Here is the input.
Amino acid sequence: MGATSISSEFLIVCEGDGDVAFFRHLCEVRGIQGFQAERTGGGNAGFLRYFKGLPAQSGAERLKGVVVASDNDDTPDASFKLIRDQLKKAKVPAPDNPLETVKWAACDFAVTVLMIPFVNGASQKGCLETLLLQSVTARFPAINQCADSYLDCAGVNGWANAGSIAKMRLRSILSAAWAEDPYLGLQWAMNPTKDLIPLQHRCFDEIAEFLRAFPGGIH
Amino acid sequence: MAGGGSPEIYFRIRNWRGFGDYRLQGSRDSFESLFRDLFFEFDQKSGAVIRLTDSNIGDRSLRIYYGEDEPYTLQLKGGAAMAETSTFSIQPLHFKWKAKEKIVDTKVYIEENQLKISGAQEVYPIHLISPLTVNSAFSAQRFSELSKSNRHQQVTEAVRELFPAVREITTEAIGGDIMLYAALDGINDKIPVAVLSGGMNKYLALILSIFSNRGGVVLVDEIENGFYYKFQTPMLRSIVKFCEQENVQLIASTHSYELLQSLIPVVEEADREETFSLLRVFRDGNRSEVKYIRGSSYKAALEQGFEVR
Here is the structure.
């Protein structure tokens, strides 16, 4: 069995295990309380089934707010629309824009959509790894220089998908930095005790502040 | 109980829970002991109130109390041994239902050595299938009733669907009792159904309840018990099919995630997402709540691997 019961009033629903680990550890490191992070397990197309099933999940009745987190990738508007359409089909509150919070009388919880990355509230091209790279390259500048050469040499910089390039660079740096297990999965690399991805980095400030303010913004 | 309209429900629940027959002795305590379990901390003087809210009727309540202003003395028939205790006074027990503007006030009392109920509404036809109610004598009785109206053959066919080795089911007199017997492939003599698998006996009891309760309700306690896991989906498919055929509403309880998963293919078929619902019961402090979950939501939740119990 995958998902657990709902035990918090606020839920972050993301795409995969790496995202879940990111939000759990970010909340932990930044002292943000009251959130539970779960994954759809179906990428950015998995939100429909997740939200259709959510009312049946044990503990769902205690939910007050849900943050849906997804990647902008190369087409922020289309990526947001994909999420919004799924929310509509699942008959849960569907905001018109990212970072807006919507509450319906017919639904117990409010919903907001967090499209990653964003700067000053405006969506940017990229994905969670785009943000993580900022933190990781600051932590391992020397390995990052080697990664520059490696990506150039391997032709990765010519890839069409910027998200894939970011993931390749992140994977390379993390593998080089963790001799104990170069295959270390992102969800494990996120653990602060490994000191691989500092979650106090300023690139995460805006997400952290949004989450901190979210419960107070629900009326 | 609060959703009904007759104290008969209480006696039925007692029976379902295996309390068995009641025998009144010549005392007030004997009468009141029948109802003692209804009251919080067994305090019969304070009475009991059950309240519930549903989305259809709204608020309902049931108040249970002894009518203090109407005690009466009763002389029970008995021999010399009962002489000292054969006269006693009791107060009738009231069951007072309130739903919207409607009030149903009923009374349970003793008359002519019998428990009687007055003012009660007709009880909706409900059958319960539980380990305490599945027994061969009861099944034989139901089978016999169906046989009188020539409907027993559909029971045999229903059993054969899942247990093809069963050729025929009949009632036989054994020592003055009626028992169900089965003719099986490869065995010359018929054998008692009671010695066949517990799963088959439970399935048979369920099918008999459905066929003998057209337009009613069948309750099944822990429906998964006794059924092999690979057998659950075909068994559920068959039960649901016969419920639809007989216009019977099936309400089954379960603690089994495996059973809930086995049900998904049945819910997916024939647009049953709209006719199936999951009622999840949970506690919130001292309150119990029942949450209604649509079939489509149930299916998505199970596919998502959510804990729904």
User: Anything to note?
Assistant: Chain A has eight helices and seven strands. Residues 147 and 157 of chain A are 11 Å apart (CA to CA).
